[in-house]
Amino acid sequence: MKPIRILIVEDEQIVAEDLKRTLQKLGYIVIAHTAYGKDAITQAGSTSPDLVLMDINLKGETDGVQAAEVISWLYNIPVIYLTAFSDDPRFHEITKTNRFGYMANPYQETDLQSAIENAMKLSQQKESSHLY
């Protein structure tokens, strides 16, 4: 099975670097990182990741929820939300509407791996259900 290719969208550089190291240690390929929602949309289109790890709060005008909606709609790429602010009202909304998952920072390595594997399974199930 080929390694899962991941786009990191995180505005905190230290968090992004830690995620990158953790993901690589787990055998995933980090194809890019950005701190901006609009850049995430562009990079998702040009690099075709298997999965996007998306912070809710980003730099620039487009937040993570908006960017994730566009990425999901345009490219059908699963998105796992990341946030350090579980008291953010948007956090509660995304936990109701996003079928691929979310992670609260700080995260545990095993929880991150489980979230990624579950999102990929859900994505594959969704794709295979459209074939019939």
Count the domains. 1
Catalogue the unreliable spans.
Answer: none
Question: What fraction of the residues are assigned to beta strands by DSSP?
Answer: 15-25%
Give the N-to-C terminal Cα separation. Answer: 24 Å
Number of strands: 5
| Shape label | globular
CATH superfamily name?
Answer: Response regulator
What's the order of the H and E elements? EHEHEHEHEH
Total helical segments:
5
Strand order of the largest sheet: 2-1-3-4-5
CATH architecture grouping: 3-Layer(aba) Sandwich
Question: Can you give the mean pLDDT?
Answer: 88
CATH topology: Rossmann fold
The portion of residues assigned to helices is 40-55%
- CATH level 1 name: Alpha Beta
Largest sheet: 5 strands, parallel
